[in-house]
């Protein structure tokens, strides 16, 4: 039997894998992918992307503006008809080839994502595989994307069908950027849309890789274009471009509002996956060991930079003291370290500005009169990058900023509650409504609470486990629209009604 690889060896192997990739990245820089070609910005401008591990420059990146977006949108518009009219069998084959290419490069993608975003290898090791699954899932749905309904009436045969809306813009954030962009791009391509992707300026590396892998896999030129740059420049221009028919956006709620305004003159269809401040509710009759595992996982994995993280722990007062004691011990034992080290549970945060934002909440907590039970400081980690101690805040109540605002870091606020009514009240006392997690062994109560929670996705006795056919999205300030399964096609396609008369109905005769 093979001996398992010691963890230290995996760390070393990861560093050895990353070194030549980073050398090449530094030498080549990152350009836009427009119409199947890697190009510089028309202006010649660039910006630097840095690693959160040590703030070292990773690459010089083309800084796109409205001119580059126009080039990409024009390419996407020209490529649209042939892509739309390609048979679904061929589209399916091509999307599976993209999935193959992602799988073949999964290890490179994982280490690059770690170095570019600071996410720990233990989570990123599977990110590329999940991205490939996104492509395979939607590849297999190419044929049914056009499906509609047959709704006959007495005098007419009524059918509906769906057609791709046209070239679309996809704008993505920097947390788990590779997996997340495939989640938006794969259904758009499967629907028959062409895409202009504007990745986050803090994490351009794997978006560049995705564009190149798609090209290698045979996706025709102009079908998937990637323009790098800043939100207010390239992103804004994409949302305003008349050739772009819809914007699939993942990011902050405030950016969603801005995009809605920017897209209004061209009547853009929008789909928003926005922020969250999600509750996990633990009742005293729950399996408390499993609940504790899930509570820790759902806020401290992925550096807490996760829209679906449960950043508010609502725990029943009768068990709060004991539960929080165990939780505090677990938080203090979390391993903060280099993202390529497989032992690391929390890596450096994406950017110094984000680190400053997360750290600012330590003072906010204290000023509000809450207690920092664990963490509460920046962390001196390997490379000297943007590390922070995983933090737990107790002694808080629902009106405090630490209970209301999305910190988007390894930062958990505990809010005790008396009974079911108060739990639901606190859970819903928030502008967001993305996910909710409920732990109880009373299934009647579980279902009542699930029904009462104002959130798009609820898990009972479980952490967030994604199943691709299910609807993904939020209520309130957490989003508009749903992704996943057939829901994705409703966004990327127009539903078209066709009515055929049986020739028997009476037509009013005017002007006789
Ligand atoms: P962000 O809104 O700052 O940026 C997201 C993207 O929007 C980036 O590519 C950025 O360049 C672009 N952008 C910024 N301003 C723009 C503008 N005016 N017009 C067009 N594009 C613009 O978000 P972020 O800080 O990168 O990501 C973190 C946020 O994303 C958090 O709020 C998190 O909850 C959210 N998020 C939500 C989900 C979800 O599924 N609901 C998933 C992941 C992340």
Automatic annotation (TrEMBL):
Q: Which InterPro entries match?
A: Ald_DH/histidinol_DH, Ald_DH_C, Ald_DH_CS_GLU, Ald_DH_N, Aldehyde_DH_dom, DH_HpaE
Classify the source by domain of life: Bacteria
* One Pfam family matching this protein: Aldedh
Q: Which residues form the Aldehyde dehydrogenase domain?
A: 42-498
Task: Identify the keywords attached in UniProt to this record, alphabetized.
Answer: NAD, Oxidoreductase
UniProt keyword annotation of Ubl conjugation present? no
What CDD domains does the record point to? ALDH_F8_HMSADH
The active site consists of 273
PANTHER family recorded = 2-AMINOMUCONIC SEMIALDEHYDE DEHYDROGENASE
Which family does the UniProt entry place this protein in? Answer: Belongs to the aldehyde dehydrogenase family.
Please state what the protein is called.
5-carboxymethyl-2-hydroxymuconate semialdehyde dehydrogenase
User: Origin organism of this chain?
Assistant: Bradyrhizobium iriomotense
What gene makes this protein? attK
């Amino acid at each position: 039997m093979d001996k398992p690889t010691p963890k230290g060896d995996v760390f070393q192997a990861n560093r050895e894998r990353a070194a030549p990739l980073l050398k090449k990245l530094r030498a080549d820089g990152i350009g836009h992918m427009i119409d199947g070609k890697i190009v510089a910005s028309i202006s010649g401008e660039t910006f630097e992307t840095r690693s959160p591990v040590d703030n070292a420059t990773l690459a010089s990146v083309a800084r796109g503006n409205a001119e580059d977006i126009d080039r990409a949108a024009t390419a996407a518009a020209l490529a649209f008809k042939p892509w739309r009219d390609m048979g679904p069998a061929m589209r399916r084959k091509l999307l599976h080839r993209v999935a193959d290419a992602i799988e073949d490069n999964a290890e490179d993608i994982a280490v690059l994502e770690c170095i570019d975003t600071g996410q720990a290898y233990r989570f990123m090791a599977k990110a590329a595989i999940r991205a490939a699954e996104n492509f395979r899932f939607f590849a297999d749905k190419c044929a049914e994307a056009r499906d509609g309904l047959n709704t006959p009436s007495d005098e007419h045969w009524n059918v509906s069908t769906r057609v791709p809306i046209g070239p679309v813009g996809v704008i993505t954030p920097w947390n788990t950027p590779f997996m997340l962009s495939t989640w938006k791009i794969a259904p758009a391509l499967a629907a028959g849309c062409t895409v202009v992707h504007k990745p986050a300026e803090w994490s351009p590396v794997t978006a560049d890789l995705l564009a190149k892998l798609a090209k290698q896999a045979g996706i025709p030129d102009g079908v998937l274009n990637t323009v790098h740059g800043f939100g207010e420049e390239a992103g804004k221009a994409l949302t305003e471009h008349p050739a772009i028919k819809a914007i699939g956006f993942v990011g902050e709620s405030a950016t969603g509002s801005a995009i809605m305004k920017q897209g209004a003159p061209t009547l853009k269809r929008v789909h928003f996956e926005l922020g969250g401040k999600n509750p996990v509710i633990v009742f005293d009759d729950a399996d408390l060991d499993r609940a504790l595992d899930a509570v820790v996982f759902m806020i401290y994995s992925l550096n807490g930079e996760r829209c679906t993280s449960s950043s508010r722990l609502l725990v029943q007062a009768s068990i709060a003291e004991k539960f929080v004691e165990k939780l505090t011990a677990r938080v203090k034992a979390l391993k903060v370290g280099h993202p390529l080290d497989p032992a690391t549970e929390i890596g450096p945060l994406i950017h110094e500005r984000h680190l400053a934002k997360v750290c600012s909440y330590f003072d906010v907590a204290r000023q509000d009169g809450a207690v920092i039970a664990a963490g509460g400081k920046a962390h001196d980690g390997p490379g000297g990058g943007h590390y922070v101690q995983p933090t737990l805040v107790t002694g808080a109540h629902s009106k405090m900023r630490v209970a209301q605002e999305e910190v988007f870091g390894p930062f958990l606020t505990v809010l005790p509650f008396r009974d079911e009514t108060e739990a639901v009240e606190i859970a819903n006392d928030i502008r967001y409504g993305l996910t909710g997690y409920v732990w109880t062994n009373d299934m009647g109560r579980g279902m009542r609470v699930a029904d009462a929670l104002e959130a798009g996705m609820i898990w009972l006795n479980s952490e967030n486990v994604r199943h691709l056919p299910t609807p993904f999205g939020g209520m309130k300030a957490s989003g508009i629209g749903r992704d996943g399964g057939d829901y994705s096609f409703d966004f990327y396609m127009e539903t078209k009604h066709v009515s055929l008369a049986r020739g028997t109905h009476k037509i009013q005769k005017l002007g006789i």
